[in-house]
Amino acid sequence: MPFYSDEIIEQVRSSNDIVDVIGQYVHLKKKGSSYFGLCPFHNEKSPSFSVSRQKQMYYCFGCGAGGNVIRFLMDYENLTFPEALQELASRSGIELPRQEMTAEARREADRKSQLLEINKLAAKYFYSLLHSERGKRAMDYFIGRELSPETMQKFGLGYSDQYSDDLYKYLRKQGYSDAILKDSGLVTIDEVRGGRDKFWNRAMFPILDANSKVIAFGGRVMGEGEPKYLNSPETPIFNKSRNLFGLYLAKKTKRKQFILCEGYMDVIALHQAGFDNAVASLGTALTSGHAALIKRYTDAVYLSYDSDGAGVKAALRAIPILREAGITCKIINMRPYKDPDEFMKNLGPEEYEKRIEEAENSFLFSIRMMEADFDMNDPAGKTAFQKAIAKRILEFPEEIERNNYIEAVALAYQFPIDSLRQLVVHLAAQEGSGITAARPATRPKATNFAKQQLNREDGPTKSQMLLLTWIAEDVAIYHDIKNYISPEDFNEGILRQVAAALFAQIEAGEGVNPAKISSSFTEEEQQRQVAKMFNTPVAEDADTSAKDLGKALKETVIRIKEESLERQRKAADPSQQMKLLREQKDIIASLKKHDFYHRS
Fold first, then answer.
1. Selection from 395, 536, 329, 515 nearest residue 453 by Cα
2. CATH number for the 6-91 domain, one of 3.90.580.10, 3.40.50.720, 2.60.120.260, 3.40.50.2300?
3. How high is the pLDDT of residue 600?
Protein backbone atom coordinates (compact mmCIF):
# COMPACT_ATOMS: atom_id res chain seq x y z
CA MET A 1 0.00 0.00 0.00
CA PRO A 2 1.15 3.60 -0.31
CA PHE A 3 3.23 4.69 2.66
CA TYR A 4 1.64 7.41 4.75
CA SER A 5 3.29 8.70 7.87
CA ASP A 6 1.71 8.02 11.24
CA GLU A 7 1.09 11.75 11.52
CA ILE A 8 -0.94 11.85 8.29
CA ILE A 9 -2.94 8.75 9.23
CA GLU A 10 -3.72 10.17 12.67
CA GLN A 11 -4.66 13.56 11.17
CA VAL A 12 -7.18 11.91 8.85
CA ARG A 13 -8.55 9.58 11.52
CA SER A 14 -8.93 12.29 14.15
CA SER A 15 -10.64 14.61 11.64
CA ASN A 16 -13.48 12.11 11.16
CA ASP A 17 -15.62 11.58 14.24
CA ILE A 18 -16.47 7.90 14.36
CA VAL A 19 -20.04 8.46 15.56
CA ASP A 20 -20.76 10.82 12.65
CA VAL A 21 -19.25 8.45 10.08
CA ILE A 22 -20.80 5.22 11.32
CA GLY A 23 -24.08 7.05 11.93
CA GLN A 24 -24.41 7.37 8.14
CA TYR A 25 -24.46 3.59 7.85
CA VAL A 26 -25.98 2.40 11.14
CA HIS A 27 -28.88 3.90 13.08
CA LEU A 28 -27.32 4.72 16.45
CA LYS A 29 -28.99 5.56 19.75
CA LYS A 30 -27.10 7.07 22.66
CA LYS A 31 -27.04 4.94 25.80
CA GLY A 32 -24.89 6.29 28.56
CA SER A 33 -21.58 7.48 27.15
CA SER A 34 -21.75 5.24 24.05
CA TYR A 35 -23.98 4.76 21.03
CA PHE A 36 -25.59 1.46 20.09
CA GLY A 37 -27.20 -0.01 17.00
CA LEU A 38 -27.66 -3.25 15.08
CA CYS A 39 -24.33 -4.64 13.92
CA PRO A 40 -23.88 -4.29 10.14
CA PHE A 41 -21.48 -7.24 10.10
CA HIS A 42 -23.86 -9.95 11.32
CA ASN A 43 -27.61 -10.41 11.71
CA GLU A 44 -29.02 -9.67 15.14
CA LYS A 45 -32.31 -8.61 16.71
CA SER A 46 -30.98 -6.70 19.74
CA PRO A 47 -28.38 -3.95 19.30
CA SER A 48 -24.94 -5.07 20.47
CA PHE A 49 -22.88 -2.80 18.21
CA SER A 50 -21.19 -0.11 20.33
CA VAL A 51 -19.60 3.11 19.11
CA SER A 52 -17.66 5.28 21.54
CA ARG A 53 -16.98 8.93 20.80
CA GLN A 54 -14.59 9.07 23.75
CA LYS A 55 -12.49 6.13 22.51
CA GLN A 56 -13.19 6.78 18.79
CA MET A 57 -13.69 3.04 18.38
CA TYR A 58 -16.49 0.60 17.60
CA TYR A 59 -16.99 -2.88 18.99
CA CYS A 60 -19.69 -5.52 18.55
CA PHE A 61 -20.37 -7.54 21.69
CA GLY A 62 -22.05 -10.12 19.46
CA CYS A 63 -19.55 -10.96 16.70
CA GLY A 64 -16.39 -9.27 18.00
CA ALA A 65 -15.97 -6.87 15.06
CA GLY A 66 -14.08 -3.80 16.17
CA GLY A 67 -11.58 -1.09 15.36
CA ASN A 68 -11.38 2.59 14.52
CA VAL A 69 -13.12 4.59 11.79
CA ILE A 70 -10.61 3.50 9.13
CA ARG A 71 -11.19 -0.18 9.88
CA PHE A 72 -14.98 0.34 9.75
CA LEU A 73 -14.84 1.75 6.23
CA MET A 74 -12.48 -1.00 5.13
CA ASP A 75 -14.82 -3.72 6.40
CA TYR A 76 -18.15 -2.14 5.50
CA GLU A 77 -17.29 -0.75 2.07
CA ASN A 78 -14.80 -3.53 1.26
CA LEU A 79 -12.01 -0.97 0.76
CA THR A 80 -8.27 -1.29 1.02
CA PHE A 81 -6.48 0.79 3.67
CA PRO A 82 -5.42 3.47 1.15
CA GLU A 83 -8.94 3.61 -0.29
CA ALA A 84 -10.50 4.04 3.16
CA LEU A 85 -7.92 6.67 4.11
CA GLN A 86 -8.58 8.56 0.86
CA GLU A 87 -12.34 8.44 1.47
CA LEU A 88 -11.95 9.85 4.97
CA ALA A 89 -9.44 12.44 3.80
CA SER A 90 -11.90 13.64 1.16
CA ARG A 91 -14.66 13.88 3.79
CA SER A 92 -12.55 16.14 5.96
CA GLY A 93 -10.91 18.19 3.19
CA ILE A 94 -7.42 16.79 3.73
CA GLU A 95 -5.21 16.29 0.67
CA LEU A 96 -3.11 13.19 0.98
CA PRO A 97 0.46 13.28 -0.36
CA ARG A 98 0.90 11.36 -3.60
CA GLN A 99 2.46 8.00 -2.84
CA GLU A 100 3.53 4.95 -4.76
CA MET A 101 1.79 1.70 -3.91
CA THR A 102 3.69 -1.29 -2.63
CA ALA A 103 3.76 -4.36 -4.85
CA GLU A 104 1.28 -6.17 -2.57
CA ALA A 105 -1.23 -3.31 -2.57
CA ARG A 106 -0.87 -2.91 -6.32
CA ARG A 107 -1.59 -6.62 -6.81
CA GLU A 108 -4.75 -6.38 -4.67
CA ALA A 109 -5.94 -3.25 -6.48
CA ASP A 110 -5.21 -4.86 -9.86
CA ARG A 111 -7.10 -7.99 -8.80
CA LYS A 112 -10.24 -6.03 -7.93
CA SER A 113 -9.89 -4.00 -11.11
CA GLN A 114 -9.63 -7.20 -13.15
CA LEU A 115 -12.71 -8.67 -11.48
CA LEU A 116 -14.70 -5.55 -12.34
CA GLU A 117 -13.43 -5.73 -15.93
CA ILE A 118 -14.43 -9.40 -16.18
CA ASN A 119 -17.93 -8.71 -14.88
CA LYS A 120 -18.36 -5.76 -17.23
CA LEU A 121 -17.13 -7.84 -20.16
CA ALA A 122 -19.46 -10.71 -19.21
CA ALA A 123 -22.42 -8.31 -19.01
CA LYS A 124 -21.70 -7.00 -22.51
CA TYR A 125 -21.32 -10.55 -23.79
CA PHE A 126 -24.61 -11.69 -22.25
CA TYR A 127 -26.33 -8.59 -23.68
CA SER A 128 -25.00 -9.31 -27.18
CA LEU A 129 -26.13 -12.96 -26.96
CA LEU A 130 -29.64 -11.86 -26.01
CA HIS A 131 -29.86 -9.85 -29.20
CA SER A 132 -28.55 -12.69 -31.36
CA GLU A 133 -30.28 -15.75 -32.73
CA ARG A 134 -28.81 -17.80 -29.88
CA GLY A 135 -30.64 -15.68 -27.34
CA LYS A 136 -34.10 -15.99 -28.91
CA ARG A 137 -35.47 -18.08 -26.06
CA ALA A 138 -34.49 -15.49 -23.43
CA MET A 139 -35.69 -12.64 -25.65
CA ASP A 140 -39.08 -14.35 -25.99
CA TYR A 141 -39.15 -14.73 -22.21
CA PHE A 142 -38.51 -11.01 -21.61
CA ILE A 143 -41.02 -10.00 -24.28
CA GLY A 144 -43.53 -12.36 -22.69
CA ARG A 145 -42.95 -10.52 -19.42
CA GLU A 146 -43.94 -7.35 -21.33
CA LEU A 147 -40.57 -5.64 -21.06
CA SER A 148 -39.81 -2.97 -23.62
CA PRO A 149 -36.51 -2.79 -25.55
CA GLU A 150 -35.72 0.39 -23.60
CA THR A 151 -36.18 -1.41 -20.27
CA MET A 152 -34.02 -4.34 -21.38
CA GLN A 153 -31.29 -1.90 -22.34
CA LYS A 154 -31.68 0.15 -19.16
CA PHE A 155 -31.10 -2.93 -16.97
CA GLY A 156 -28.56 -4.52 -19.34
CA LEU A 157 -30.51 -7.78 -19.51
CA GLY A 158 -28.84 -10.66 -21.29
CA TYR A 159 -28.59 -14.37 -21.97
CA SER A 160 -26.01 -17.03 -21.04
CA ASP A 161 -25.54 -19.60 -23.80
CA GLN A 162 -26.82 -23.18 -23.60
CA TYR A 163 -23.26 -24.54 -23.68
CA SER A 164 -21.81 -24.73 -20.18
CA ASP A 165 -18.33 -23.51 -21.13
CA ASP A 166 -19.27 -20.73 -23.55
CA LEU A 167 -18.44 -17.77 -21.30
CA TYR A 168 -15.33 -19.50 -19.97
CA LYS A 169 -13.92 -19.92 -23.49
CA TYR A 170 -14.81 -16.34 -24.38
CA LEU A 171 -13.08 -14.89 -21.32
CA ARG A 172 -10.03 -17.09 -21.79
CA LYS A 173 -9.71 -15.69 -25.32
CA GLN A 174 -9.68 -12.21 -23.77
CA GLY A 175 -6.53 -13.22 -21.89
CA TYR A 176 -7.84 -13.94 -18.38
CA SER A 177 -6.30 -16.78 -16.37
CA ASP A 178 -8.16 -19.63 -14.66
CA ALA A 179 -7.19 -18.23 -11.25
CA ILE A 180 -8.81 -14.82 -11.75
CA LEU A 181 -11.83 -16.31 -13.52
CA LYS A 182 -12.41 -18.62 -10.56
CA ASP A 183 -12.27 -15.61 -8.21
CA SER A 184 -14.91 -13.83 -10.32
CA GLY A 185 -17.61 -16.31 -9.34
CA LEU A 186 -18.55 -16.72 -13.02
CA VAL A 187 -16.55 -19.88 -13.57
CA THR A 188 -15.73 -23.08 -11.69
CA ILE A 189 -12.50 -24.90 -12.48
CA ASP A 190 -12.55 -28.69 -12.45
CA GLU A 191 -9.26 -30.59 -12.79
CA VAL A 192 -10.96 -33.21 -14.96
CA ARG A 193 -13.54 -31.28 -16.97
CA GLY A 194 -11.78 -27.93 -17.03
CA GLY A 195 -13.62 -24.61 -16.85
CA ARG A 196 -17.42 -24.56 -16.54
CA ASP A 197 -19.74 -21.55 -16.46
CA LYS A 198 -21.67 -20.73 -13.31
CA PHE A 199 -24.52 -19.50 -15.54
CA TRP A 200 -25.66 -21.24 -18.72
CA ASN A 201 -28.99 -21.30 -20.55
CA ARG A 202 -30.33 -18.52 -18.35
CA ALA A 203 -31.90 -15.11 -18.76
CA MET A 204 -29.33 -12.84 -17.14
CA PHE A 205 -29.76 -9.89 -14.76
CA PRO A 206 -26.56 -7.87 -14.14
CA ILE A 207 -26.20 -6.64 -10.56
CA LEU A 208 -24.64 -3.20 -10.28
CA ASP A 209 -23.38 -1.46 -7.16
CA ALA A 210 -24.34 2.07 -6.14
CA ASN A 211 -21.59 3.40 -8.42
CA SER A 212 -23.04 1.58 -11.47
CA LYS A 213 -20.26 -1.02 -11.63
CA VAL A 214 -21.23 -4.60 -12.53
CA ILE A 215 -20.33 -6.71 -9.50
CA ALA A 216 -22.43 -9.89 -9.93
CA PHE A 217 -25.30 -11.55 -11.80
CA GLY A 218 -28.61 -13.25 -11.28
CA GLY A 219 -29.92 -15.78 -13.77
CA ARG A 220 -33.29 -17.43 -14.44
CA VAL A 221 -33.16 -20.85 -16.08
CA MET A 222 -34.78 -21.19 -19.49
CA GLY A 223 -37.05 -24.23 -19.52
CA GLU A 224 -36.67 -27.00 -16.98
CA GLY A 225 -33.84 -26.95 -14.47
CA GLU A 226 -32.92 -26.23 -10.88
CA PRO A 227 -32.46 -23.89 -9.26
CA LYS A 228 -34.96 -21.67 -11.03
CA TYR A 229 -33.05 -18.56 -9.98
CA LEU A 230 -29.29 -18.54 -9.43
CA ASN A 231 -27.13 -15.75 -8.03
CA SER A 232 -23.40 -15.11 -8.09
CA PRO A 233 -21.49 -16.29 -5.03
CA GLU A 234 -19.83 -13.67 -2.85
CA THR A 235 -16.52 -12.44 -4.22
CA PRO A 236 -13.95 -9.75 -3.31
CA ILE A 237 -16.22 -7.23 -5.10
CA PHE A 238 -19.66 -8.61 -4.17
CA ASN A 239 -21.37 -8.95 -0.80
CA LYS A 240 -25.05 -9.81 -1.18
CA SER A 241 -25.94 -8.42 2.25
CA ARG A 242 -24.58 -4.97 1.42
CA ASN A 243 -25.97 -4.44 -2.07
CA LEU A 244 -29.46 -3.95 -3.48
CA PHE A 245 -30.69 -4.65 -6.98
CA GLY A 246 -31.63 -1.40 -8.72
CA LEU A 247 -29.99 0.87 -6.14
CA TYR A 248 -27.81 2.60 -8.73
CA LEU A 249 -31.05 3.82 -10.38
CA ALA A 250 -33.21 4.29 -7.29
CA LYS A 251 -30.69 6.55 -5.57
CA LYS A 252 -31.40 9.16 -8.29
CA THR A 253 -35.15 9.21 -7.65
CA LYS A 254 -36.96 12.40 -6.70
CA ARG A 255 -39.42 10.43 -4.57
CA LYS A 256 -38.83 10.56 -0.82
CA GLN A 257 -39.18 6.83 -0.23
CA PHE A 258 -37.84 3.56 -1.60
CA ILE A 259 -40.11 0.69 -2.64
CA LEU A 260 -38.60 -2.56 -1.38
CA CYS A 261 -39.44 -5.70 -3.38
CA GLU A 262 -38.42 -9.34 -3.35
CA GLY A 263 -37.38 -10.06 -6.94
CA TYR A 264 -35.54 -8.68 -9.95
CA MET A 265 -38.63 -8.69 -12.18
CA ASP A 266 -40.62 -6.77 -9.58
CA VAL A 267 -38.01 -4.00 -9.57
CA ILE A 268 -37.80 -3.94 -13.36
CA ALA A 269 -41.59 -3.87 -13.80
CA LEU A 270 -41.93 -1.00 -11.32
CA HIS A 271 -39.18 1.04 -12.97
CA GLN A 272 -40.79 0.47 -16.37
CA ALA A 273 -44.08 1.74 -14.92
CA GLY A 274 -42.42 4.94 -13.66
CA PHE A 275 -41.61 3.90 -10.06
CA ASP A 276 -37.89 4.59 -10.25
CA ASN A 277 -37.45 4.19 -6.48
CA ALA A 278 -37.80 0.38 -6.43
CA VAL A 279 -35.02 -1.90 -5.10
CA ALA A 280 -34.73 -5.55 -4.01
CA SER A 281 -32.43 -7.63 -1.83
CA LEU A 282 -30.28 -10.11 -3.72
CA GLY A 283 -31.64 -13.60 -3.21
CA THR A 284 -31.54 -13.27 0.56
CA ALA A 285 -33.75 -12.01 3.37
CA LEU A 286 -33.39 -8.36 4.33
CA THR A 287 -30.46 -7.80 6.70
CA SER A 288 -29.33 -4.95 8.91
CA GLY A 289 -26.65 -4.33 6.26
CA HIS A 290 -29.35 -3.75 3.66
CA ALA A 291 -31.22 -1.45 6.04
CA ALA A 292 -28.05 0.53 6.75
CA LEU A 293 -27.50 0.91 3.01
CA ILE A 294 -31.06 2.15 2.47
CA LYS A 295 -30.67 4.60 5.37
CA ARG A 296 -27.91 6.37 3.42
CA TYR A 297 -30.51 7.47 0.84
CA THR A 298 -33.88 7.62 2.60
CA ASP A 299 -35.55 7.12 5.97
CA ALA A 300 -38.84 5.79 4.58
CA VAL A 301 -39.67 2.51 2.83
CA TYR A 302 -42.78 0.98 1.29
CA LEU A 303 -42.70 -2.81 1.43
CA SER A 304 -44.06 -4.40 -1.74
CA TYR A 305 -43.38 -8.04 -0.93
CA ASP A 306 -45.40 -10.94 -2.31
CA SER A 307 -48.91 -11.10 -0.87
CA ASP A 308 -48.71 -14.86 -0.16
CA GLY A 309 -47.78 -16.45 3.17
CA ALA A 310 -44.06 -16.42 2.47
CA GLY A 311 -44.19 -12.75 1.49
CA VAL A 312 -46.07 -11.84 4.66
CA LYS A 313 -43.48 -13.67 6.79
CA ALA A 314 -40.68 -11.88 4.95
CA ALA A 315 -42.38 -8.53 5.61
CA LEU A 316 -42.80 -9.32 9.30
CA ARG A 317 -39.09 -10.13 9.52
CA ALA A 318 -38.11 -6.95 7.64
CA ILE A 319 -40.22 -4.52 9.68
CA PRO A 320 -38.19 -4.62 12.93
CA ILE A 321 -34.90 -4.54 10.99
CA LEU A 322 -35.98 -1.36 9.21
CA ARG A 323 -37.32 0.15 12.42
CA GLU A 324 -34.04 -0.48 14.26
CA ALA A 325 -32.23 1.28 11.43
CA GLY A 326 -34.43 4.35 11.94
CA ILE A 327 -36.50 3.77 8.80
CA THR A 328 -40.28 4.20 8.82
CA CYS A 329 -42.10 1.47 6.98
CA LYS A 330 -45.50 1.02 5.33
CA ILE A 331 -46.98 -2.04 3.64
CA ILE A 332 -48.50 -1.92 0.13
CA ASN A 333 -51.52 -4.16 -0.33
CA MET A 334 -51.30 -5.82 -3.76
CA ARG A 335 -54.23 -8.24 -3.45
CA PRO A 336 -55.67 -9.90 -5.40
CA TYR A 337 -52.31 -10.16 -7.16
CA LYS A 338 -49.19 -11.82 -5.83
CA ASP A 339 -46.40 -9.37 -6.64
CA PRO A 340 -45.76 -5.92 -8.21
CA ASP A 341 -45.10 -7.46 -11.63
CA GLU A 342 -48.51 -9.20 -11.74
CA PHE A 343 -50.21 -6.15 -10.25
CA MET A 344 -48.77 -3.82 -12.88
CA LYS A 345 -49.83 -6.08 -15.76
CA ASN A 346 -53.41 -6.31 -14.49
CA LEU A 347 -54.21 -3.00 -12.78
CA GLY A 348 -51.48 -0.63 -13.95
CA PRO A 349 -49.45 2.19 -12.40
CA GLU A 350 -52.36 4.46 -11.48
CA GLU A 351 -53.92 1.84 -9.24
CA TYR A 352 -50.52 1.03 -7.75
CA GLU A 353 -50.09 4.72 -6.93
CA LYS A 354 -53.40 4.56 -5.07
CA ARG A 355 -52.19 1.53 -3.14
CA ILE A 356 -49.10 3.49 -2.14
CA GLU A 357 -51.31 6.29 -0.81
CA GLU A 358 -53.35 3.71 1.13
CA ALA A 359 -50.29 1.82 2.42
CA GLU A 360 -50.70 0.45 5.93
CA ASN A 361 -48.59 1.41 8.92
CA SER A 362 -46.14 -1.46 9.52
CA PHE A 363 -47.02 -1.84 13.21
CA LEU A 364 -50.74 -2.02 12.52
CA PHE A 365 -50.01 -4.49 9.73
CA SER A 366 -48.07 -6.74 12.11
CA ILE A 367 -50.94 -6.55 14.64
CA ARG A 368 -53.45 -7.44 11.94
CA MET A 369 -51.37 -10.46 10.93
CA MET A 370 -51.05 -11.49 14.57
CA GLU A 371 -54.83 -11.36 15.04
CA ALA A 372 -55.18 -14.60 13.05
CA ASP A 373 -53.52 -16.45 15.94
CA PHE A 374 -56.36 -15.61 18.35
CA ASP A 375 -60.03 -16.53 18.58
CA MET A 376 -61.66 -13.11 18.75
CA ASN A 377 -65.07 -14.66 19.46
CA ASP A 378 -63.74 -16.13 22.70
CA PRO A 379 -63.25 -13.67 25.63
CA ALA A 380 -60.08 -15.50 26.64
CA GLY A 381 -58.72 -15.24 23.09
CA LYS A 382 -59.61 -11.56 22.92
CA THR A 383 -57.84 -10.93 26.24
CA ALA A 384 -54.74 -12.78 25.08
CA PHE A 385 -54.74 -10.72 21.87
CA GLN A 386 -54.87 -7.47 23.83
CA LYS A 387 -51.99 -8.63 26.05
CA ALA A 388 -49.95 -9.50 22.96
CA ILE A 389 -50.64 -6.03 21.55
CA ALA A 390 -49.63 -4.37 24.81
CA LYS A 391 -46.38 -6.32 24.82
CA ARG A 392 -45.63 -5.15 21.27
CA ILE A 393 -46.38 -1.54 22.19
CA LEU A 394 -43.80 -1.76 24.97
CA GLU A 395 -41.14 -2.25 22.31
CA PHE A 396 -41.38 1.45 21.47
CA PRO A 397 -38.85 3.29 23.65
CA GLU A 398 -40.56 6.70 23.63
CA GLU A 399 -43.71 7.58 25.53
CA ILE A 400 -45.23 9.59 22.69
CA GLU A 401 -44.94 6.61 20.32
CA ARG A 402 -46.53 4.27 22.83
CA ASN A 403 -49.45 6.62 23.43
CA ASN A 404 -50.01 7.14 19.70
CA TYR A 405 -50.11 3.40 19.04
CA ILE A 406 -52.37 2.76 22.02
CA GLU A 407 -54.85 5.22 20.49
CA ALA A 408 -54.48 3.81 16.96
CA VAL A 409 -54.98 0.19 18.04
CA ALA A 410 -57.90 1.05 20.32
CA LEU A 411 -59.59 2.86 17.43
CA ALA A 412 -58.91 0.09 14.92
CA TYR A 413 -60.22 -2.73 17.14
CA GLN A 414 -62.80 -0.81 19.17
CA PHE A 415 -60.95 -1.54 22.42
CA PRO A 416 -61.54 0.79 25.41
CA ILE A 417 -58.49 3.05 25.25
CA ASP A 418 -58.15 3.37 29.04
CA SER A 419 -58.19 -0.40 29.47
CA LEU A 420 -55.48 -0.87 26.85
CA ARG A 421 -53.37 1.88 28.39
CA GLN A 422 -53.70 0.32 31.85
CA LEU A 423 -52.70 -3.05 30.43
CA VAL A 424 -49.56 -1.51 28.93
CA VAL A 425 -48.74 0.16 32.25
CA HIS A 426 -49.29 -3.14 34.09
CA LEU A 427 -46.97 -5.07 31.76
CA ALA A 428 -44.40 -2.28 31.97
CA ALA A 429 -44.46 -2.54 35.77
CA GLN A 430 -43.95 -6.30 35.55
CA GLU A 431 -40.87 -5.71 33.41
CA GLY A 432 -39.62 -3.05 35.78
CA SER A 433 -40.20 -0.23 33.33
CA GLY A 434 -42.43 2.81 33.59
CA ILE A 435 -44.89 3.81 30.87
CA THR A 436 -44.27 7.50 31.25
CA ALA A 437 -40.66 7.36 30.20
CA ALA A 438 -38.46 5.43 27.90
CA ARG A 439 -36.94 2.35 29.44
CA PRO A 440 -33.61 3.20 31.09
CA ALA A 441 -30.65 2.91 28.77
CA THR A 442 -28.40 0.06 29.80
CA ARG A 443 -25.27 -1.31 28.29
CA PRO A 444 -26.22 -4.51 26.45
CA LYS A 445 -24.80 -7.67 27.92
CA ALA A 446 -22.35 -9.61 25.83
CA THR A 447 -24.11 -12.23 23.74
CA ASN A 448 -23.39 -15.90 24.28
CA PHE A 449 -20.97 -15.81 21.34
CA ALA A 450 -19.09 -12.86 22.80
CA LYS A 451 -18.96 -14.52 26.21
CA GLN A 452 -17.58 -17.67 24.62
CA GLN A 453 -14.91 -15.54 22.94
CA LEU A 454 -14.02 -13.90 26.25
CA ASN A 455 -14.03 -17.20 28.09
CA ARG A 456 -11.32 -18.41 25.75
CA GLU A 457 -9.03 -15.97 27.51
CA ASP A 458 -7.65 -17.03 30.87
CA GLY A 459 -8.44 -15.14 34.08
CA PRO A 460 -5.29 -12.97 34.17
CA THR A 461 -5.74 -12.00 30.52
CA LYS A 462 -9.33 -10.91 31.11
CA SER A 463 -8.26 -8.93 34.17
CA GLN A 464 -5.64 -7.12 32.12
CA MET A 465 -8.17 -6.34 29.39
CA LEU A 466 -10.61 -5.05 31.98
CA LEU A 467 -8.02 -2.70 33.45
CA LEU A 468 -7.29 -1.27 29.99
CA THR A 469 -11.01 -0.70 29.46
CA TRP A 470 -11.30 1.12 32.79
CA ILE A 471 -8.30 3.35 32.10
CA ALA A 472 -9.64 4.21 28.64
CA GLU A 473 -12.91 5.29 30.22
CA ASP A 474 -11.34 7.18 33.14
CA VAL A 475 -7.69 8.28 32.94
CA ALA A 476 -7.65 9.07 36.69
CA ILE A 477 -7.46 5.32 37.30
CA TYR A 478 -4.06 5.20 35.61
CA HIS A 479 -2.60 7.80 37.96
CA ASP A 480 -3.79 5.73 40.92
CA ILE A 481 -2.34 2.41 39.76
CA LYS A 482 0.83 3.47 37.91
CA ASN A 483 3.06 2.95 41.00
CA TYR A 484 1.96 -0.69 41.11
CA ILE A 485 1.28 -1.68 37.48
CA SER A 486 3.61 -1.32 34.48
CA PRO A 487 3.43 -2.70 30.92
CA GLU A 488 5.72 -5.57 32.03
CA ASP A 489 2.88 -6.83 34.25
CA PHE A 490 0.82 -7.59 31.13
CA ASN A 491 1.12 -10.75 29.05
CA GLU A 492 3.77 -10.68 26.38
CA GLY A 493 2.56 -9.84 22.89
CA ILE A 494 -0.24 -7.53 21.83
CA LEU A 495 -1.57 -6.98 25.37
CA ARG A 496 1.78 -5.66 26.58
CA GLN A 497 2.19 -3.56 23.42
CA VAL A 498 -1.23 -1.96 23.91
CA ALA A 499 -0.62 -1.32 27.61
CA ALA A 500 2.76 0.27 26.85
CA ALA A 501 1.24 2.50 24.16
CA LEU A 502 -1.65 3.54 26.39
CA PHE A 503 0.59 4.33 29.37
CA ALA A 504 2.99 6.27 27.11
CA GLN A 505 0.12 8.37 25.74
CA ILE A 506 -0.95 9.36 29.22
CA GLU A 507 2.58 10.06 30.44
CA ALA A 508 3.18 12.25 27.37
CA GLY A 509 0.11 14.30 28.24
CA GLU A 510 -1.82 13.13 25.15
CA GLY A 511 -4.68 11.73 27.19
CA VAL A 512 -6.25 8.44 26.16
CA ASN A 513 -6.43 7.65 22.43
CA PRO A 514 -7.36 3.98 21.83
CA ALA A 515 -8.16 4.64 18.16
CA LYS A 516 -4.60 5.82 17.55
CA ILE A 517 -3.28 2.66 19.19
CA SER A 518 -5.53 0.60 16.94
CA SER A 519 -4.05 2.36 13.88
CA SER A 520 -0.58 1.11 14.81
CA PHE A 521 -1.69 -2.46 14.06
CA THR A 522 -2.22 -3.37 10.42
CA GLU A 523 -3.90 -6.78 10.68
CA GLU A 524 -7.69 -6.94 11.00
CA GLU A 525 -7.53 -9.59 13.75
CA GLN A 526 -5.09 -7.45 15.76
CA GLN A 527 -7.43 -4.46 15.50
CA ARG A 528 -10.32 -6.65 16.67
CA GLN A 529 -8.24 -7.69 19.69
CA VAL A 530 -7.41 -4.07 20.49
CA ALA A 531 -11.09 -3.15 20.29
CA LYS A 532 -11.96 -6.02 22.65
CA MET A 533 -9.29 -4.86 25.13
CA PHE A 534 -10.99 -1.48 25.38
CA ASN A 535 -14.51 -2.93 25.56
CA THR A 536 -14.21 -5.73 28.11
CA PRO A 537 -17.53 -6.28 29.97
CA VAL A 538 -17.05 -5.54 33.64
CA ALA A 539 -19.19 -8.53 34.64
CA GLU A 540 -16.53 -10.89 33.35
CA ASP A 541 -13.90 -9.89 35.89
CA ALA A 542 -15.21 -7.72 38.70
CA ASP A 543 -17.76 -7.58 41.46
CA THR A 544 -20.25 -5.39 39.65
CA SER A 545 -22.57 -5.31 42.65
CA ALA A 546 -20.00 -3.25 44.55
CA LYS A 547 -20.95 0.42 44.45
CA ASP A 548 -17.39 1.45 45.15
CA LEU A 549 -15.28 1.15 42.01
CA GLY A 550 -12.22 1.20 44.25
CA LYS A 551 -13.04 -2.24 45.62
CA ALA A 552 -13.40 -3.78 42.18
CA LEU A 553 -10.32 -1.96 40.94
CA LYS A 554 -8.24 -3.20 43.86
CA GLU A 555 -9.25 -6.81 43.22
CA THR A 556 -8.31 -6.47 39.55
CA VAL A 557 -4.94 -4.81 40.22
CA ILE A 558 -4.03 -7.39 42.85
CA ARG A 559 -4.94 -10.22 40.48
CA ILE A 560 -2.74 -8.76 37.72
CA LYS A 561 0.19 -8.06 40.04
CA GLU A 562 0.06 -11.46 41.72
CA GLU A 563 0.16 -13.22 38.37
CA SER A 564 3.01 -11.00 37.13
CA LEU A 565 5.13 -11.51 40.26
CA GLU A 566 4.51 -15.23 40.17
CA ARG A 567 5.71 -15.35 36.54
CA GLN A 568 8.87 -13.46 37.52
CA ARG A 569 9.52 -15.73 40.51
CA LYS A 570 9.15 -18.94 38.51
CA ALA A 571 11.48 -17.62 35.81
CA ALA A 572 14.16 -16.56 38.31
CA ASP A 573 17.18 -18.50 39.45
CA PRO A 574 16.19 -21.01 42.20
CA SER A 575 18.54 -19.28 44.65
CA GLN A 576 16.56 -16.05 44.28
CA GLN A 577 13.07 -17.49 44.50
CA MET A 578 12.66 -17.29 48.30
CA LYS A 579 13.73 -13.66 48.27
CA LEU A 580 11.30 -12.87 45.46
CA LEU A 581 8.52 -14.69 47.30
CA ARG A 582 9.01 -12.46 50.36
CA GLU A 583 9.04 -9.34 48.15
CA GLN A 584 5.93 -10.60 46.43
CA LYS A 585 4.09 -10.92 49.74
CA ASP A 586 5.19 -7.42 50.79
CA ILE A 587 3.96 -5.86 47.52
CA ILE A 588 0.59 -7.59 47.69
CA ALA A 589 0.20 -6.60 51.36
CA SER A 590 0.89 -2.99 50.40
CA LEU A 591 -1.64 -3.21 47.58
CA LYS A 592 -4.30 -4.53 49.93
CA LYS A 593 -3.79 -1.55 52.24
CA HIS A 594 -3.96 1.01 49.43
CA ASP A 595 -7.18 3.01 49.13
CA PHE A 596 -7.72 2.99 45.39
CA TYR A 597 -9.35 5.76 43.44
CA HIS A 598 -13.12 5.67 43.29
CA ARG A 599 -15.76 7.92 41.82
CA SER A 600 -17.60 10.20 44.18
1. 536
2. 3.90.580.10
3. 42
